[in-house]
User: Fold this.
Amino acid sequence: MAEFQITTSTNNNIEELLLHGYLDAHTAPQLEAAIGVLVQQGKYNILVNFRELDYISSAGLGVFMVFIEEVRNNNGDIKLCEMKPKVYTVFDLLGFPMLFEILPTSQEATDKFTTSNG
Amino acid sequence: MAKPAATYQELHIQSDLSELADVRTFVVSQAEEFGFSEDVVFQISLAVDEACSNLIRHAYKLDASNRITVRIATKESQFIVSIFDAAISFDPTQLKSPDMNDYFSKFRHGGLGVHIIKRVMDDIKYIPANTKHPLNELRLTKRLVA
Assistant:
């Protein structure tokens, strides 16, 4: 198995990226490319599911910072869900929950998009 | 009775980001053996990953022909990770930690690795290369709390 993989799916105008494995400075460019494609296509409702992700470093967090301004300027959002506790601690350590919504389940995150889009 | 001498283990890598996974595996196995909890093992491996990532990307500018040595020594309750490089000396301990409110409001990215290292390790020390020691050393220490 590759050290990092992304599985994508679309549901109700929401693009879900399911991350697998290890997200570090080596693998972060793959995630940056995947989100970059969505943004280029004008798909701004992005849900990142961390259920299968075992590790993240600051290079991984940086990917979300690259896109969040453009996505929100286009009335979209990047929401995060289903993080393992140790992955959440990295976000929490740096105060990322101030800027990003981190939801326990994919369903709750999906509901948030639906609500905020009216 | 004489005090037991400090022991150490070393890992040598090329300055290539694909080596980070091996660095973490090495640090995790040593930190587990030393007796840290799973959470602390994770934090130490994160700190060493951040330090090596910075060296590979910034000091060595992604030129994989350079080398980095990660040495782990243990001394009483201290778990000491030394990261050696032969690049131009740069003392990361002098970097000011970012104001995260400002960071988020300006949608900045990057530059958080050293901040993470400072948050999770007990001690961080930088020893630039000199005539006696040709390599720079970043020494990260975590203490095992009984």
The domain at 7-143 of chain B is CATH 3.30.565.10 (Heat Shock Protein 90). The CA atoms of residues 16 and 64 of chain B lie 5 Å apart. Chain B touches chain A through 28 residues (CB under 8 Å).
